[in-house]
From TrEMBL:
GO terms for cellular component: vacuolar membrane. Its main location: membrane. InterPro entries: Ccc1_fam (IPR008217). The chain crosses the membrane at residues 62-80, 120-142, 149-168, 180-200. Vacuolar Fe(2+) uptake transporter. It catalyses: Fe(2+)(in) = Fe(2+)(out). The keyword Disulfide bond does not apply. One of its GO terms (biological process) is intracellular manganese ion homeostasis. This is Vacuolar iron transporter. It is found in: Vacuole membrane. Keywords: Ion transport, Iron, Iron transport, Membrane, Transmembrane, Transmembrane helix, Transport, Vacuole.
Amino acid sequence: MATISDHDMVHHQTTLELEPKEFDYSKRSQWLRAAVLGANDGLVSTASLMMGVGAVKKDVRAMILTGFAGLVAGACSMAIGEFVSVYSQLDIEVAQIKRDMSRRDVLEDEVDSLPNPWQAAAASALAFSLGAIVPLLAASFIKPYKVRILVVAVAVTMALAVFGWLGAALGRAPIVKSTIRVVVGGWMAMGITYALTMLIGSKGLH
């Protein structure tokens, strides 16, 4: 009787250890990648465009129009690119499932886990737009040129830090390294765009 009881206890303990599986963070990869990369791209590309225009034109309207155009164009580009990419992945996985039709016991699970191109495209476009709104809002109500550039740079830096921390926290990645990498990358993009645009503008292009 003791032997049976011990066996049952061992079996029960093993079952408990197997059931509460640690969360598979790879399941987050599709939407997390689209959301974080989309927001970072929207933030950095829109801010860089605004900084570039601001290097040669101090008019606030020029910066805002440039940023808005960058938001719309970038969101559409991100959505289309993500849709095409995920749809290609979907085609590959569906083809693989068709080759494995004999595994009918896991077929439904495989179908449920297939990537959704429309969802990925919408998430990417929305995330891009949310990121792009940050520099637009930061510059919208500030007319003095130098103050406007400074406020945009500070707002973008803070947003980059938040996005870097969020992406690392959700993906269980090193937070400090991820945040620094995102912030420095954003600074480089804005600085290079600003410097090159100012250089070209100083050569007499009108």
